[in-house]
Amino acid sequence: MVHKEIQGISLLELADKYDTPLYIYDTQVIKQRYFALHEALSPIPHKIKYACKALSNIHILRLLSDWKCGLDCVSPNEISLGIMANFSQEEIIFTPNSVAFNEIEEAYKQNVLINIDSTTTLEKFGKNYPKGKCSLRFNPDITAGANSSIQTGHRFSKFGIAKDQLDDVVKIVRKYSLEITGIHIHTGSGISQPHIFVQILNTLSALSTKFPHLQFVDIGGGFKVAYREGDAFISIEALAQQIVPAMQNLNSNYGKTLELWCEPGKYLVSDCGYLLVTVNQIKQNGERIFAGVNSGQNHLIRPMLYDAYHKITNLSNPHGDKRVYDIVGYICEEDTFARQRQVEEIHEGDVLCIHNAGAYGYSMSSNYNSRCRPAEVMIHEGKDILIRKRETLQDLLRGQNFTIQ
Ligand code: LLP
């Protein structure tokens, strides 16, 4: 079905008003997801830390901070954005990977909890901040996630401290009297089976006995959302049904009630987002009909990078008969949004809607081919609000040095 309106506002009218390509976010979806997750986890003490790498527009962050969400950050700039969006430092967890130690120092000074993911970083942390507090990211040796590029918990992944280094970790912790307040595992993105999170909790439970000062365990993000009709996705209720008892077991094993933390990105913001594009050209090459649009891998790279499926509908011809197209971008690469896809009959000038564009859409966009990034509009409480202007040539020139002759 073609989704034509959000909160009573016509998507086609938005395309007209703001022009395309255009990112649109429906805040009602984010709100519904956020509070549904709280509700599902209500039998146990818990915190939700939004993985802001998924969509980091400050206006979206502000909403989540108004709702008392916490934040999962991976760079100092994400921390700064979070603070600017009114997240208190205590609600931010910083989980960097392969970063210079000065980033850790910067975060520590800001009073943000640092989630350390290597023994050498832990050693430096201990030297610099004896008796300091931090959490630890472990590699659970679990392979889970929608595709190999986004699986981060297997033993050949760069992420986390391998479980077999536990003794070394404990030695460092003792040597510097560190206070380990949490232990963390994130195995990957796009996980549809709740039992993976039970496996994570069981692994955390086994690790927890080595750390007497824990306040929380963190199961990361990765809750799968549906990208196509009939797609497997994680039901938050089914997830809670399995993880609440697993968490209770962990607590009785540990002898104290710990908080459960989780870090959803896609679950909160994937299907709140739409990318509207205009068809520049219909072209036939051999048997294939190409619908070429005014966007490409520079705006939404997921289909090209991961072969990810994004539903596409024709807003300009919602009742048209379906025909088969290759929907392609305008970048000088084989940037294809969808191959051999049935879409309502497309004409030049039609506006297409690419669904599930909220997570890892704008945040992974680029200026490749010296193209500008789209504008972002959020639909909030029945109003459309421009939350980021479309880029211009000036944005591409910013920072380039014009003093060189
Ligand atoms: N926590 C940590 C430590 C993470 O690394 C991530 C995502 C998340 C939470 C949130 O995962 P989510 O709930 O969004 O699945 N660009 C890829 C996804 C990469 C995810 C990176 N880490 C994609 O578009 O599929």
From TrEMBL:
UniProt pathway: Amino-acid biosynthesis; L-lysine biosynthesis via DAP pathway; L-lysine from DL-2,6-diaminopimelate: step 1/1
InterPro entries: Ala_racemase/Decarboxylase_C, DAP_deCOOHase_LysA, De-COase2_N, Orn/DAP/Arg_de-COase, PLP-binding_barrel
Active site: 332 (proton donor)
Alphabetized Pfam families for the sequence: Orn_Arg_deC_N
Residue span(s) of domain Orn/DAP/Arg decarboxylase 2 N-terminal: 30-270
Highest taxon of the lineage: Bacteria
Cofactor entry: pyridoxal 5'-phosphate
Keywords: Amino-acid biosynthesis, Decarboxylase, Lyase, Lysine biosynthesis, Pyridoxal phosphate
Residues carrying N6-(pyridoxal phosphate)lysine: 53
Binding site for pyridoxal 5'-phosphate: 222, 360
GO molecular function annotations of the record: diaminopimelate decarboxylase activity; pyridoxal phosphate binding
GO annotation, biological process: lysine biosynthetic process via diaminopimelate
Residues annotated as binding substrate: 302, 306, 333, 360
EC number: 4.1.1.20
General function of this protein: Specifically catalyzes the decarboxylation of meso-diaminopimelate (meso-DAP) to L-lysine.
HAMAP family (alphabetical): LysA
Protein family (similarity comment): Belongs to the Orn/Lys/Arg decarboxylase class-II family. LysA subfamily.
Subunit architecture: Homodimer.
Designated name of the protein: Diaminopimelate decarboxylase
Lineage: Bacteria, Pseudomonadati, Planctomycetota, Candidatus Uabimicrobiia, Candidatus Uabimicrobiales
Gene name linked to the record: lysA
